[in-house]
Amino acid sequence: MSITKSAALVNYAEQAKPARLTKSLDSFAILNERFVTNDRERYLRYNPWAQALNAANLHITVREDEISAAASAYQEVAEHLAANLSWPPEAISIRTQGSVSTKTLIRSPMGGEKFDIDAVCEVDISRVQAANPMGFFESVGRALAELEAQAKRRCWNIPFPRQPFYLEFTPSVPLDNVPAQTLATMAPRYRASRYERTALAVVDTPTRNWKTSNPAGMSQWVEDTSKRSLIRVVTMEAYAKDEARASVSPVPDQTVEITDTLRVAIRLFKRHRDMCVRRNVIEAGVKPISIIIVTLLTTCYEGLADLNRSFVHPVELLDELAALMPHLVLNLDGKHRVDNPTVEGENFAEKWNDDDGERYRAFMTWCDALSADLKTILALTDPQEISKRVREVFGIPAPSGGGNGLPSIQIPAPKATPASRGLA
């Protein structure tokens, strides 16, 4: 019986990974045999860790009111395009992509620092117009000149100085609008491998040609994967019925952890990466980019679901995701690979192969630091100590009167674990 690619990757990672990150979780198995009669009681024993980690998750999540201003920014951009170009408004569609669309946008550890809103603009231009990708890209830049747009490789950066964000704005056309002969020159990268209906063509300025992109497909993949339950527990509503007997009030953010464990993992791991940069564990210029973290964690989660793995609590699953993640990076013919699941042939880790291994080493150093920190957190048992350590690790301000909230701690950087060498 054949298995999915994600399941095969997880199988390989399970063979390559070290033992469970912390003995404290293994100790629960012994404790459960003696004192815990069912999964519900075992679930409740994880509450101190769950509450502390979810408090961190809530703190780093960008508030909805801070993001809502993006809607008016999109409208302003669309009006500039319609006013300065020959495109009718109905031919222009602007929507979020990246962290906003996957609901994994996080705050920067540096107070007051702007966050980026990734947006894609789909324009239904003719095939004749699509024959000139650079002309299309540059016309967008000219139309946005009043907004001080700056060209990047595939997008325009719009600063919006009076907003808490800046816009990374990517012009695109439906992939079907690209002439057939042009598509042939893009092969094999022009093929959409999943969620084909949402595939787009964006301009890759270094090559001056079209390149396939599928941001909506990536977002839908994260959404679809996150809905697959890996937690063996009854619903929180069932817990609430005997709340008094359990002496534990159902915490609303627990429901978030049960239903959105994947997104919580992405948010927390991204924040940990940013804290590693702030503490000089890794350098900002070579830190793992968010799309790699999202792809590896979603692949891991999907593979575990495909293999019918299950966990009593999201804390167990977070532990497993951290342990497996570094072993999901493929090394094929001496090249590191993190494949885009929606576009055939695109390697998100392409830059890792052109920098003498600097980005790969930074990734592995970060993974080792993440594992070390989770091991320390999960080895604690006192709720106050757990909460304190979580705040330290993820850079969360202490409660009022509790100091500056950012203690100085040393994160170990053990020897990097080798990447996987691929699948048989």
Describe the SSE topology:
Layout lengths: L4 H12 L6 H13 L3 H7 L1 H14 L3 H21 L7 E6 L17 E9 L3 H4 L2 H11 L6 E2 L4 E3 L6 E10 L5 H7 L13 E5 L4 E5 L1 H12 L9 H6 L1 H4 L5 H8 L1 H18 L11 H17 L7 H11 L5 E3 L2 E3 L20 H22 L3 H12 L30
Helix pairs in contact: 1-14, 4-12, 4-13, 4-17, 9-14, 13-14, 13-15, 16-17
Q: What's the assembly state of these chains?
A: single chain
Task: Tell how many strands the DSSP assignment holds.
Answer: 9
* Low-pLDDT segments, ≥5 res: 27-37, 234-258, 401-424
Number of DSSP helical runs: 17
Rg for CA atoms = 23 Å
Helical coverage, percent range:
40-55%
List the helices and strands in order.
HHHHHEEHHEEEHEEHHHHHHHEEHH
Classification by helices and strands: alpha+beta
Give the number of domains.
2
Mean pLDDT: 80
Beta-strand proportion: 5-15%
Distance between the termini: 15 Å
Largest sheet: 7 strands, mixed
- Give the CA-based shape: globular
